[in-house]
Design a protein that fits this description.
single chain; Hypothetical Protein, Haloacid Dehalogenase-like Hydrolase, Chain: A, domain 2; 14 strands; 5-stranded parallel sheet; Rossmann fold; 6-stranded mixed sheet; globular; alpha/beta
Length: about 280
């Protein structure tokens, strides 16, 4: 039996919880498994006392369907690392930030100049597009293109890059200097050899901040959960950032607290402990 969370791992007594923000993969679930009943119950417990639960994920819109099936009463989701706000209930895009065609042409040319082996994929509001030799997890869900000019008329909201390595951190360190501020580079898995490029200035934290302004929730009232480097800005921005037990060391280092791993229902255990400790929540 896993022991209860010690009080020193919980937020201070004067912390006022106004919104919970959570990454999906590696945080709410692992390896595309269903979300556990304990986690769904904790999400509903927050909602029942008027605390919004907002998913903040790198997933594209087309990968949100399994989540919506399990938790259909979720509202707005920040997806594609902050590039899109999507409403699950109405299945509609609320807001989107795109990368213009000229920037896409410039960054692909700059990366290929130093790394001829580079291959790209592109997430748009109408689905995914991939270079012919790009290795995709779900290739049948994406359309193959031979040149970026074939993206004309598409709203590109994320670019994904592969090189001849599976070390995502090393890839990030090679690619980021080539972008010259035109995009924001991050990665969501340490060993899948994939770097994700969002529009310049767009992060999970930036879009979550805008959403909190819309909802009237103060930064100090936000509790956020995550596990990977693309969560660092969000956990640092939130009033109380919580890293998963399975998070990378760089994520744990900036978090206010660390909960159990995703396989041990870390989010559910932490939320239940917070709601139990703060007596104003029934």
């Amino acid at each position: 039996m896993i022991p209860p969370l010690s009080p020193d791992r919980l937020p201070p007594a004067d912390f006022e919880l106004g919104l919970v923000a959570s990454d999906i993969d590696g945080t709410l679930l692992l390896n595309w498994k269903p979300i556990s009943k304990a986690t769904i119950d904790a999400i509903h417990r927050c909602q029942d006392v008027g605390i919004p639960f907002v998913l903040v994920t790198g997933r594209p819109i087309r990968w949100l369907a399994p989540i919506a099936e399990q938790i259909p009463d979720l509202g707005r989701v920040v997806c594609l690392n902050g590039a899109v706000v999507y409403d699950i209930a109405s299945q509609s895009v609320v807001d989107a930030h795109s990368i213009d065609a000229q920037t896409i042409a410039e960054i692909t040319a700059a990366v290929r100049a130093d790394h001829p082996e580079a291959r790209f994929a592109y997430e748009t509001l109408n689905g995914g597009f991939i270079d012919r030799e790009f290795v995709a997890h779900r290739p049948r869900e994406a359309r193959i293109i031979d040149d970026v000019s074939e993206l004309a008329g598409q709203d590109v909201v994320k670019v994904l890059v592969r090189l001849d390595t599976s070390d995502s951190q090393a890839m990030h360190d090679l690619i980021d200097p080539l972008l010259e501020g035109t995009c924001h580079a991050s990665f969501s898995e340490p060993d899948n050899g994939l770097v994700e490029l969002a529009p310049a200035g767009i992060t999970k934290a930036k879009t979550l901040s805008d959403l909190c302004d819309h909802l009237g929730v103060a930064q100090s009232q936000v509790m956020a959960f995550g596990d990977m480097p693309n969560d660092i800005e969000m956990l640092s921005w939130a009033g109380h950032g919580v890293a998963m037990g399975n998070a990378l060391g760089s994520v744990k280092a900036i978090a206010a607290a660390v909960t159990e791993a995703v396989d041990d229902d870390g989010v559910a255990r932490y939320l239940d402990a917070v709601l139990d400790t703060h007596k104003k929540y029934p």
